[in-house]
Design goal:
heterotrimer, A mainly alpha (about 270), B mainly alpha (about 290), C alpha/beta (about 425), A: about 270 residues, mainly alpha, MetI-like fold, globular, C: about 425 residues, alpha/beta, five-stranded mixed beta sheet, four-stranded mixed beta sheet, 17 helices
Chain lengths: ~270, ~290, ~425
């Protein structure tokens, strides 16, 4: 009896926490379907029929789908660059011997301690002098240096890339680049997926950098567009809610298909890190 | 082994992109920021050298000290409940009899993949005193009579900001703890069961101590990340009397809203110092315990 | 196998992405080539030719461009709108970097002071613009001048404000909807407080006389001395009286505590739960006039002191290659034709007195039925003293607004508020003498 009771309480606890995770999203979707006057006056629990009106007003000023596409483009490109170069360097640290290797590796780890915002003003000014303001380069190219990724990939290469396979590749007459691209990368692919998930989430959420380096509306990313909704639609809450729904629902759908893979990847990365 | 040495050239080649990328996009901006912090530059005219003026201004800037305090308060308010919650959930979900484990894990993790900015906007809309769902809900349940102006109260502003962060990260940390729990060999538990230990005893005396390295990992990342709080609190605003303005928000406002780039650069180095200070304390404290 | 699937997915996303990028870059290419060369070839045949890029934060500039293009078929005007509070940052960023800079850009009253003395604005006086503003409302043209007295930006409108009210609500709670009588009833703040008490009592606390004690910041902003004199912070003693009035308003339940332009504020303007809304003429778009449902429903009364609020100024980028054409555009919006059109279409009050004078006895607008709102507005704007914008005024006002609003909410003393205020000013402008 006591056992059933404890289990009941545990389930209740789990469900209560799950509810707090989902209710804000539910409320947001419901609210987006109502007219402003109702949003201001009543508690809304069931869907209304104003979604398209709200959407039309939003679309008049903010090209939110464009922002979505921009963010996908930037995120995917950076993730690929991030993963490739992290794997390359991780593999280099793992399987090659060279002078100052350990010092250099410590240096890599040391860069992880630098807070991201320290250089932001200089970054902005530097991008200006390189003529890269209002382009995607400042958002994509920095993905080349990802210390956490190198650390993760080195662990991975240490544990799952056998030295014999590299040697046999050399016997077959492959060059070092070919070995990496054709033999090592496929072996490391579970690790790449893990790092890819981290890189993807991080880049998808990037806010400060695009906000300061991009000023053309057509180039802007989704988080910046969402952030500006508040000041653009001061009294139009319907449009703000629709903007958020558009930002969240595709992620929700994607996540419900991929959740197992993503969570397993995160767990794997966390244990290694 | 010999072949490795011969090919050390490729070792350099393979790690070079990181160092080049870091030099251009990491180091140079940091040095440039340092240079700017010795200048006076508002974006309208050319920079002028002013020596340490920005730093002495920073040392006397009560607003900066206030943001350090705010950041620490928000950090504590968000991390303490979050760590407790994520460990509890990890322990519960690690029980064999629980069904729907994957569903719960996925639901708890979900807030983590939503952009912090979006979360900030969602919460600011929910707690809006005129139109927000929270007030409407509390009023229709009869808990309050008049709408509460949440963002007019320093403590509510901070609690809401902390709530957003707690809500966003507990799922992630829970996954980390679960991974840690699964790394504990089954034999340990079996031995405890043989010795007749209760569930509670096992959790307190065996599981938690074995989780220590995971705790450390979570804790240090949350110190470094927590002191750089920015996106979500920015969407919730400064709060009355700037009570929920964080350090990085102050940097952003100084540099990119008031266009005082040079003072902003000094603020950036101030933040760097504060983050290093607290990271060092954390690292030291964790070593002392060993 | 699974990895392969994953890779396929990434690849396909990348493909779609690169297609999007392709479209994007193509579009921007074509616009940049268009903007370059064909300028300047203006006047020869009397017909203008070329391409202009305008940056703004205000939706109605699109109509301005349409009208200008209709008149000059050889010209294309590309209006880039950046709504929201990041416009200023974006503008400064673009100006500094010199990349993708517009030919003409808009500046709001709130921050024109920061830009007006910068190297980014063309000297319009040298291009003959003194002639364009010779009939202007004095305060409107003066705000577009830099400290050396040269014209650098021109507005096409003035922004007089008044108490807007719904006629039904006014009849019910004030006993009349006649603008003159209402103006008389609210001609001083003391009268407003007394009247506000009555409205609150009559309605059982549901209806308030005014929106927000904070409205006084806008009404008094330019009826007080400038915030900075000779490098020293200058707090007009009048602010103390005003602050006391604001406390009394809050204490006696005269205001609905709704911030300007917030959701509740917009609601109250449209459903009459607040009797008087103080707002500028350009904010007419906040009245919900779908299917003419607000036609003839509104009136405007005078505030205890005349005021203006906001204003959009337009300047030419110093390094624009299209200066002559851009000047033609400025000339157009400073002229009577556009301002008359805009007055009829949106109810925005003109900046040119000639347009005021032409409509002085005849002006009617749908929202206000038979009331001629232009005349009292005109009487208000001509009296507003002409003053230049400096880089401090608006910033310091907004700090005062923030600190004093907190003070009103928490019923703090004037001295406490001033102490906090000085701290904020000192922090933002360390070069000012604050004590």
């Amino acid at each position: 009896m006591a056992k059933i009771l404890t289990r009941g309480i545990l389930y209740l606890f789990l469900i209560a926490v799950a509810a707090t995770c989902l209710l804000p999203f539910y409320s947001m979707i419901i609210t987006s379907t109502h007219a402003n006057s109702d949003i201001a006056r009543r508690l809304l629990l069931i869907p209304g029929d104003q979604f398209l009106d709200n959407y039309a007003r939003l679309k008049d000023t903010v090209n939110i789908w464009r922002g979505f596409g921009n963010t996908v483009l930037i995120t995917v490109t950076s993730t690929i660059i991030n993963v490739y170069f992290a794997a390359l360097a991780g593999y280099g640290f793992s399987k090659y011997n060279f002078k100052y290797k350990n010092v250099l590796f410590l240096f890599v780890l040391g860069t992880m301690m630098i807070p991201g915002q320290l250089g932001i003003i200089g970054f902005f000014k530097l991008m200006d002098s390189l003529n890269m303001l209002n382009t995607y380069w400042p958002l994509i190219l920095p993905s080349i240096h990802n210390a956490f990724g190198i650390f993760l990939m080195r662990q991975f290469a240490d544990s799952s890339v056998p030295t014999e396979i590299i040697e046999s590749g050399r016997m077959d007459g492959y060059g070092e680049w070919q070995i990496f691209n054709r033999i090592v990368l496929p072996i490391m692919s579970p690790g790449l997926a893990t790092l890819g998930i981290f890189a993807f989430i991080g880049k998808w959420n990037d806010f400060l950098t695009p906000m300061i380096v991009l000023f053309d509306n057509n180039l802007q990313t989704l988080p910046v567009m969402i952030a500006s909704l508040k000041s653009q639609f001061t009294s139009d809450f319907g449009a703000q809610y629709v903007g958020i729904v558009i930002a969240v629902v595709p992620i929700l759908v994607f996540f419900s298909f991929m959740s197992k893979r993503i969570i397993d990847g995160v767990a794997a990365g966390a244990v290694k890190g | 082994m010999g072949s490795k040495v011969n090919r050390s050239f490729y070792g350099y080649i393979f790690v070079a992109p990181f160092f080049i990328g870091f030099a251009v996009f990491g180091l140079m901006p940091i040095l440039y920021t340092l240079y700017l912090s010795f200048m006076k530059w508002d974006g309208f005219s050319d920079p002028v050298y002013v020596g340490l003026a920005n730093y002495s201004r920073l040392l006397h800037d009560s607003f900066f000290y206030q943001t350090i305090g705010n950041t620490l308060i928000i950090w504590i308010l968000s991390n303490v409940p979050q760590l407790i919650l994520s460990v509890l959930l990890a322990l519960v979900l690690n029980e064999r009899f629980i069904r729907g484990k994957h569903f719960f894990r996925a639901v708890y993790f979900f807030p983590h993949i939503i952009t912090p900015v979006t979360l900030g906007v969602i919460f600011s809309l929910m707690f809006d005193w005129q139109t927000g769902t929270i007030n409407k809900l509390l009023m229709s349940l009869g808990i309050i009579h008049d709408p509460v102006n949440w963002f007019n109260s320093p403590w509510w502003s901070r609690i809401i900001a902390s709530g957003v962060i707690c809500w966003q990260y507990f799922g992630f940390n829970m996954i980390v703890f679960i991974a840690g729990l699964q790394g504990i060999p089954r034999e340990v538990y079996e031995a405890a069961e043989v010795d007749g230990a209760s569930k509670k005893q096992t959790a307190l005396h065996i599981t938690l101590p074995l989780l220590r390295p995971v705790f450390l990992f979570v804790f240090i990342t949350s110190v470094i990340g927590g002191l750089q709080l920015f996106d979500a609190p920015l969407m919730l605003g400064d709060g009355p009397g700037n009570s929920s303005r964080t350090m990085v928000m102050y940097l952003y406002e100084t540099a990119f809203k008031n266009f005082d780039y040079s003072y902003g650069a000094a603020v950036a180095y101030g933040i760097f110092f504060v983050v290093m200070f607290f990271t060092a304390i954390t690292a030291k404290a964790s070593k002392l315990k060993d | 196998m699974k990895t392969k699937k994953w890779l396929m997915m990434v690849l396909s996303v990348l493909l779609v992405g690169s297609m999007l990028a392709g479209c994007g870059s193509k579009a921007s290419d074509s616009s940049s080539t268009a903007s370059g060369d064909d300028s300047g070839k203006a006047a020869e045949s009397g017909e203008l030719k070329g391409h202009l890029v305008i940056w703004t934060f205000f939706d109605q500039v699109k109509d301005m461009a349409d009208q200008f293009q209709a008149k000059n078929p050889g010209v294309t005007v590309d209006v880039k709108m950046f709504p929201g509070d990041q416009y200023q940052t974006k503008l400064l960023t673009a100006l500094q970097s010199g990349r993708d800079v517009p030919d003409i850009f808009d500046l709001e009253r709130g921050y024109i002071g920061k830009f007006i003395d910068s190297k980014f604005l063309t000297d319009l006086s040298a291009m003959g613009a003194e002639d364009l503003v010779k009939d202007y409302i004095p305060y409107v043209q003066e705000l577009g001048r830099s400290q050396d007295g040269k014209l650098r930006a021109i507005s096409d409108h003035s922004s007089p404000g008044g108490f807007w009210y719904m006629r039904d609500t006014a009849k019910k709670y004030l006993g009349t909807d006649d603008p003159d009588k209402v103006s008389d009833m609210v001609s001083s703040w003391d009268k407003i407080i007394e009247l506000g008490k009555k409205v609150a009592a009559d309605s059982g606390g549901k209806v308030h006389l005014i929106q927000n004690a904070g409205d006084l910041f806008d009404i008094e902003a330019y009826n007080t001395q400038p915030w900075v004199k000779d490098g020293k912070l200058n707090i007009d003693p009048k602010w103390q009286t005003i602050y006391q009035t604001q406390l009394d308003i809050r204490k006696n339940n005269v205001d609905a505590k709704l911030p300007f332009m917030s959701a509740g504020w917009g609601n109250a303007l449209n459903d009459g739960s607040v009797v008087l809304t103080s707002m500028p003429a350009w904010a007419g778009f906040m009245v919900d006039n779908k299917d003419d449902k607000a036609k003839g429903k509104y009136g405007v009364a005078k505030t205890p002191e005349g005021f203006y609020s906001g204003g959009t100024y337009r300047g030419i980028y110093e390094k624009s290659k299209n200066k002559d054409l851009a000047y033609e555009f400025i000339k157009y919006i400073a002229g009577e034709e556009w301002q008359q059109h805009n007055l009829e279409k949106t109810g925005n009050m003109p900046g040119n007195s000639k347009v005021y004078e032409a409509n002085l006895d005849t002006f009617k607008s749908p929202l206000f039925g038979d009331e001629n709102v232009l005349k009292p507005y005109y009487e208000t704007v001509v009296k507003i003293p002409a003053a230049k914008a400096d880089k401090y005024g608006e910033e310091i006002l907004s700090k005062w607004r923030k600190v004093a609003s907190d003070g009103i909410t928490n019923n703090r003393s004037f001295d406490d508020v001033v102490t906090d205020f000085k701290k904020e000013v000192k922090n933002a402008f360390p070069e000012l003498n604050v004590d």
